[in-house]
Design goal:
Layout lengths: L27 E14 L2 E10 L8 E10 L2 H18 L9 H5 L4 E8 L8 E9 L20 H13 L13
Antiparallel strand pairs: 1-2, 1-4, 2-3, 4-5
Length: about 180
């Protein structure tokens, strides 16, 4: 066990700080979540997820993303849930409870497209994940059935239908219908 010397002075000017450049935007890297924690926010709850690049030139680099899943702002909640759903599809995760987030999401590799989030105030720019893809093509979102859009009838079709109704003794207007 090491001993702690209360009189030891730490001088930050003696430490050489390594500047780590950002991963360039639009770079695809293989990532995995390493931690998923539910945190309270002033407007709801979010998943705070830590990611690690697991191979290639940027192996070992860490990224952090927050996903609002309950928020007073419907727009913030929608954006957070959509991003979280994209992550889930990329790693093949189905439905899960908050307490099961790490089991559902973590240590399942996927391909992420990197973006750069502009820093505000005293904060520097930082990398973010802009797109999520399954590593092996699995985990795609389920296809949504395409619903047919109702087609508007042309004037000629409407006139022909009106003439047919009138010839059959019926019309859409009460005075055009035969008496009963």
């Amino acid at each position: 066990m090491s001993t702690y010397d209360d009189d030891e002075v730490f001088d930050p000017s003696t430490v050489e700080i390594e500047e780590i450049p950002l991963i360039p935007a639009r770079t695809e890297v293989t990532l995995q979540a390493t931690q998923a924690v539910v945190k309270e926010t002033k407007n709801g709850e979010m998943y705070a997820i830590t990611f690690e690049v697991i191979d290639g030139q940027y192996e070992g680099r860490m990224l952090w993303e927050n996903y609002n899943f309950r928020n007073a702002s419907e727009k913030a909640q929608q954006i957070g849930r959509e991003s979280l759903a994209k992550l889930c599809f990329a790693v093949g995760a189905g439905a899960f409870r908050k307490s099961e987030a790490e089991q559902a999401i973590c240590f399942k590799p996927f391909v992420g497209t990197i973006g750069i989030r502009k820093g505000e105030g005293n904060y520097a720019d930082q990398n973010s994940i802009r797109a999520y893809k399954p590593l092996d093509g699995a985990g795609q979102p389920p296809a949504r059935p395409q619903t047919a859009k109702p087609q508007r009838a042309t004037q000629a079709q409407t006139a022909a239908a009106t003439q047919q109704q009138a010839a059959a003794g019926g019309g859409s207007r009460p005075w055009q219908r035969p008496a009963r």
